[in-house]
Amino acid sequence: MKIRKKDGVIGSFEAFCLCNYLIYTKMFLAMPRHLIEEAGPIAWAVPILVLIFSLLFFYILTNLLQRFEDLSFLEIIGELWGSSMQWIIGVLFAFLFLVITAYQLRIIGEFLLSTLLPQTPLSAVLFIMVATFVYLAYFGIENLARLAGLLFPWLLVAFVVTFLLAVGRGEFYNFSPWLGYGEWRLFVSTVNHIGIYKEILLLAFIAPLFRKHQTLRRTGFTSLIFVAFFFFFAMAIYIYVFPVHTGSELGFPLFQLTRLVYYGAFLQRIDPLFMFVWASISIVGMATGLYVSALSLAQGAKASDYRPFLFPLAVILLAIAFYHESSMEAVKNYRLFPAYIAIPFFGIPILAWLWALLFHRQRRQRQ
């Protein structure tokens, strides 16, 4: 299926939800712990500082897309640099999205084994999850987006209420010292996690599905601001409840918050509710990651349909997920990704924008 306006459109709210799911998945993994290790009590500021750069990047990205309103990001690459570069960059982004999804799959699979399914083989859990990804991605971005939009309000309420119930166990003193480990450590942590919101590039791959460019622009900026606020909210609650020396050692940090909720006989053990929320967001988010990977490969090869790529990519996804012998190795390597993977995610669109600005002044308009 080519991404063209005649193939259908995607609503602003549904695209907003997809971007949120794709980015939220990493928030439930080890990232809060890594932020605290690097920045200390001021780790809550990192998502806000990264947002400033991300808003500037998305402005550049939308400027590029506006110059070629009827094309997706990879088709713009083909216009600027030729079919060979379109194929190379398509394969590159397909691989990057696949690797990110594979590591998330492995870590979340290990979590499910340690909490809910201790007697279940890891292979069974991962196979079932990947089969679900393929099923969701196979029916296209519109159905995936509708599912995301349908679940989003309920999951949002459950998520916020669950976290607020844990606030009673915290202390404001945990935010001191107010500058954490110092301005330099805060800067280093910000640079290391500059790619927190890099998945906003999803909108560039599906740009022709928006009715108007203004809708795409509004969706992207709204998604970035909302996700950044949610990251800030989650980090602030986590630091408020757990002192730095404790928060930097916990596995699956945000899940640990839900285990502290206890209001006598009235309310306790709400962690199963959080697990449902986490699983729903993660499954839709990782299915979106697989979809974008297949779409990138199809657009890079100028194929008419992305679906034949889903099954081979699913096999590669499982192979990468099983590459590490333990989840600790996967978490350790996953920690190195944000800074390095952010380079092509941000660098290639910015370079394409500069090239179009300097050497390709003709604007293309939708018919």
Automatic annotation (TrEMBL):
Main location: membrane
Entry-linked InterPro entries: Spore_GerAB
GO cellular component terms given for this protein: membrane
Topological relation to the membrane, as annotated: Multi-pass membrane protein
Domain of life (superkingdom): Bacteria
Stretches that traverse the bilayer: 12-30, 42-65, 86-108, 120-140, 147-166, 186-209, 221-241, 273-294, 306-324, 336-359
Compartments, as annotated in UniProt: Membrane
Keywords assigned: Germination, Membrane, Transmembrane, Transmembrane helix, Transport
GO biological process: spore germination
Sequence similarity: Belongs to the amino acid-polyamine-organocation (APC) superfamily. Spore germination protein (SGP) (TC 2.A.3.9) family.
NCBIfam families (UniProt xref): 2A0309
Protein name: GerAB/ArcD/ProY family transporter
Organism name: Heliorestis acidaminivorans
